[in-house]
Predict the structure.
Amino acid sequence: MAKNLSFTIKYWKQNGPKDKGHFESRQMKDIPDDTSFLEMLDILNEQLIEEGKEPFVFDHDCREGICGMCSLYINGTPHGKTERGATTCQLYMRRFKDGDTITIEPWRSAGFPVIKDCMVDRTAFDKIIQAGGYTTVRTGAPQDANSILIPKQDADEAMDCASCIGCGACVAACKNGSAMLFVSSKVSQLALLPQGRPEAAKRAKAMVAKMDELGFGNCTNTRACEAVCPKCETIANIARLNREFIKAKLAD
Amino acid sequence: MWLFKSSIGRKVIMSVTGIALVLFLTFHGCMNVVALLSADAYNQICALLGSNWYAIAATCGLAALVAIHIVYAFILTFQNRKARGNNKYYVTEKPGKVEWASQNMLVLGIIVVLGLLLHLFNFWYNMMFAEIAEVQNAISATDGFNWIKMTFSNPVFVAIYVIWLVAIWFHLTHGFWSAIQTLGWSGHIWFKRWKLIGSIWATIVMALFLIVALAFAICPDCLGGASGKVVPFAM
């Protein structure tokens, strides 16, 4: 049975990266507990628009947990305390109690400047992906799928790494503002497969160089990233990236 | 050079110097235990190391390792602070799997350095330095056993050393597996193994130091075997 909740939300308002920003709060009344967190914010914005006020800005797109656009720091945790490894859009109001105060903040990291309110600029991740370059695929008639054998375990792990949606929760949670979990997942998804091996060394070097250039921090293995990752990426990926990078540099 | 220019390279420097220092601590801890068994044997080790050229060379190497480890700790922390930015979260919740030591390595490191300065003053200054500078003290420069005895007869030093050892233990429990993770020798299985090996290693090594400090604090005259009551300048 659905029941209704009433609670207070404190949400972050900020006009651009240079603005100091501040919290605004509002009493939300009788919100059904089946409402998703983003739907609750939609209700907030409806109310704000009706009152002639400026709506609260936040990122969202697919709302089914696969695009990586939503990015809210809820009550001290990136994406909030979801029911399983999931993003903000998969967080439901039943996870909160009547009378709670819910604090909503943007990802706070120098690598992700605030565009407005809780919408941050994550272009840096796109630049790192671009730096990764290409994989060699021969043109011509497609070969038989079984001509390249891939152990099941490797295929599974590559798939797990590829499931990183680049939401940036790892950077948001990291005290060092490090993007290593993201970069290592993207390097791993190709490094684990034979098709990714020809450019593996080049890719690891280029992506780490871009990550450093964009000012992300140095990983100190605190594991905050893997604790909050909505896709359950692990620091085993970071070890793999370190391995790939060091190997590539030693081979130069 | 990638070691200095890339984030992973700088971490490799931290990692390699850190592992070398763990190995040194292991050697130092084993050496100390000898003092519990025989004052003569311990003083022989002191004489063997003393101010011989190889001991001085090794000390210089060790000092370099410590210096590099500290300098890079500050460089990395400075860069990380900058990457993190000035905007702090108003509400934060620490996830369960994040260990306290992992987020406070610099603070722990500073405590370790402060303890190290006291330690150098207590022992190195009175032993290796005194020997090189030919300073004559009431206790001979190679009479390590009596230097330990004298230092730990002061309960303030004992308390400081215990706090110091606890700080090093915390520093090592994170530092050990973190160093190996940085070198890439880790994965789903080895991560757990290294973490356990690191905890056991750090605990054993710190326990060796702690036992010696406490034994000398509690009953200095029960130690050192038959010739425990070493006369100064006996060598």
